[in-house]
Automatic annotation (TrEMBL):
It holds the Pfam family Inositol_P. SUPFAM superfamilies: Carbohydrate phosphatase. InterPro entries: Inositol_monoP_superfamily (IPR051090), Inositol_monophosphatase-like (IPR000760). It comes from the Bacteria. Mg(2+) binds at residues 108, 124, 126-127, 251. It comes from Sphingomonas lutea. This is Inositol monophosphatase family protein. GO terms for molecular function: metal ion binding; phosphatase activity.
Length: 310
């Protein structure tokens, strides 16, 4: 992701807090849980894992010793990329082209190639490049299968940890050392009990900074720096809430299916599912999601945008 701080207007609107009944809250959140009933074939699910395997071969082989880093950012913006980023994405795109030439794909490093099929692939070869070049273990590869632009299958692969989180919107599981275990979000419903995560608190500025500060004060504890892995741990039940701004489609596509498949909620900052501005909230339960939206809406009007870091 680009290192571009989230900036918003300075005006406040403290009248945005909404009173919701319990029934309205649950009805509204239902759309964030299982928005599609599309069944992914075993063939496509296995192929997605094949893509993750191919990316692992590249990224793990390169994650030793000193890693050469280029800056693809403009001006003073530091946006790191490594040869492993490019090689892993190339490997996945090549496999897609060979197995499913009619499928489109879009990746962080090489952009989009349109296909003739309703299916397409969203690829982020190394989500958390900063962690990767620093020798930290929580970087991931993100792979999503989309049908008509909607995520129907997601993989959050953590090669250094040998953990692979898979979700199809209806179920989610973790594969490690040849063992597959079902994932379930924590069930936390109150901010006061929640474990919050975001990639970097310094990404938030202006009203977004106020909004995140309000959440940080309201929750039990906050952890930073886990990029896409934080969403994997939300699906596993050890993190309850993740809030970020201005993610790109390749950053969030895979996360949607994994979080929702584990029973969590994946929505935007306004209580909906419009991710065009990249503002996302992942929460363990509908109640926790709505509580987070309420805090954010006290500081941030629904129309603002922002930037992000990965």
């Amino acid at each position: 992701m680009l290192d571009d701080r989230c900036r918003f207007g300075m005006g406040r609107n403290r009248t945005l807090r909404r009173a919701r009944s319990t029934s309205l809250l649950l009805d509204r959140a239902a759309a964030h849980l299982h928005p599609t009933s599309v069944m992914v074939t075993p063939e496509l699910s296995n192929f997605a894992s094949h893509l993750a395997d191919a990316a692992r071969l590249v990224t793990l082989a390169s994650a030793t010793g000193m890693i050469a880093v280029e800056n693809k950012g403009a001006a003073r913006l530091f946006d790191p990329v490594t040869e492993a980023d490019r090689a892993a994405e190339n490997a996945m795109q090549r496999l897609i082209g060979e197995a499913y030439p009619e499928h489109g794909f879009a990746g962080e490093e090489f952009g989009e190639q349109l296909g003739s099929s309703p299916y397409s692939w969203s690829l982020d070869p190394i989500d958390g490049t900063r962690s990767y070049v620093c020798g930290l273990p929580t970087w991931t590869t993100l792979i999503a299968l989309l049908e008509n632009g909607q995520p129907v299958l997601g993989i959050i692969d953590a090669p250094r940890l040998d953990e692979r989180y898979v979700g199809d919107g209806a179920a989610a599981w973790c594969e490690r050392a040849g063992i597959s275990a079902a994932l379930q979000s924590s069930g936390c419903t109150e901010l006061e009990q929640a474990r919050l995560s975001t990639t970097d608190p310094f990404l938030f500025a202006g009203q977004a900074e106020d909004a995140f500060a309000g959440l940080r004060r309201a929750v039990r504890m906050t952890r930073y720096g886990h990029d896409g892995y934080a969403y994997a741990r939300l699906a596993a039940g050890t993190i309850d809430l993740v809030v970020e701004c201005a993610l790109k489609p390749h950053d969030y596509h895979a996360l949607v299916a994994v979080v929702r498949g584990a029973g969590g909620v994946f929505g935007d900052w306004s209580g909906g599912t419009d991710f065009a501005a990249g503002r996302v909230i992942a929460a363990a339960t509908p109640q926790l999601y709505e509580a987070a939206v309420d805090v954010i809406q006290m500081a941030v009007p629904p129309s603002v945008g922002g930037g992000a870091l990965r």
